[in-house]
Amino acid sequence: MPEVTLYFWLIKCLCTTIGETLSDNLTTSFAGSNNASVHALNVAAIKVMLITMGVLAVMLAIQFTRKRYIAAIYWTNIVVISVVGTQITDQFEGNGAQPHHMWSITIVSIALLGLVFLIWWLVERTLSMHSIRTARREAFYWLAILVTFATGTAVGDLVAEKFSLGYLTTLMVFVAVIAVIAAVWKFTAINGVLAFWLAYIMTRPLGASTGDFLSQKGNQGLNLGTSVTSYIFLAAITCLVVFLQIKKPDLTPVAEANADSIHHPHLPDLHHPHLPDLHHPHLPDLHLPHLPELHQPHAHPDLPLVPEVE
User: pTM score, two decimals?
Assistant: First the structure.
């Protein structure tokens, strides 16, 4: 996993925006045009979702075979999974002027996200990024990432469209929420892992609102279009990832990565109290008194002494 730096948060926000705009762009392209019928958009959305799920499966397979963090592979997975998460939510909301079942989708997605984190914690007893050094923990991580993108899409759509706040207003709301989380983490004793995941979840509706604000027409949108917005953000992501791949400023220091030891509740602890200690008082001492000292001049009475050189 990458170290959580300013680069991490910047690229993460760019990826969340891509998830919204690129998903919409691919759907309308497959449907034929922006003015396609709702039925054509629904059919196109299913095709796009199946294709991107296939791409995600291939990219995750590559990711799981890596023994170390590689920026290009990791962030490609984030971009693709952001698109897939958006499309999953859009499948339930449907296409058209007003999405459907927004309240129920939001509630279900939040409950599912909480369930993923709960099972992850019960099985592994840690949600730390630094602890993700086993295949099972990485599987939990990517599942949680997928659900955060789907949840963020639902929350962002609910606030922007159902509450009729507008895309820009919704964007500023989530900027304020993330700022509060950062301030609480900075000035209080809140758990750092909890603060990280709260901020991570909130970046998704932030990115969705940013994408809608830049690409959509009406509802405070700038009407740049999904194509232009997607190309701009993809270019920015590519430049940043190339920089990370070359300079590697986001590699976690070895000491910090190993600080979170891998303990599993169903496996014996390496420091188990019933295992013998190397310095146990009942074990014989290596310096036994009945063994001759190597530097003792009278170690053996039959051996001649070697005179010291003056």
Answer: 0.79
